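Next up, sample data.

:::
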Amino acid sequence: MSTFKITCVIVDDEPMALNLVESYVAKTPFLELKKKCSSAIEALEFIKNEPVDLLFLDIQMPDLSGIAFSKMVPKETRIIFTTAFDQYAIEGFKVEALDYLLKPFDYAEFLEAANKANKWFSLTKGNQQSNVSDEKDFLFVKSEYKQLRIKLDDVLYFESLKDYIKIYLKDNPKPILTLMSLKSLEEELPNTKFMRVHRSFIVSLKNIEVIERSQIIINKQRITVSEQYKTDFLEFVNNNSFNS
């Protein structure tokens, strides 16, 4: 499975339904909730400024229906409809919804629909990211008034230090110090080679020497995998483990 998160918005005018889907999203590791909205108009305003991957969208709502709203969202944003009325199923599939959940639905049904979305994004978004990572094998970073070319294969790990980042390299006893945020760096790095495992650390996956409980050892440095990043890291370990 892919290590990226699918960003999503929940849209429903019923507070109980809104809260139920929110609880389902919270227990699904590959979903990241950006906002819950009580109307399609509120959701439309939000995604204009912050596009998301997926909408969990009620159909029958006042002012603007889910079907009408679905025709206004960017084509990159996919939809899973949630409704109490099964007569909308054909209309839902006409607008190429990924799935259609009929209320009341339980977590197993929700997860089945979410997994369809995960497979779809693994084929599209995952391929795009892997293409980028194939092209990028170095970064230019500013350090001491110079632009240094850093080969990504030489990087052991990155450590955040307030507004700066320390870059630890093979065969280089002193780290390189550069003014940059760890978040902006994470967006530039190929996700097939690097993973954030702590709010202060991004590690080179190929340079991990030992994993001991919740710690990674790289070049004698122990780095703790925090709870926030543990799910993705364990998925990486499981996908690359040999079990006899």
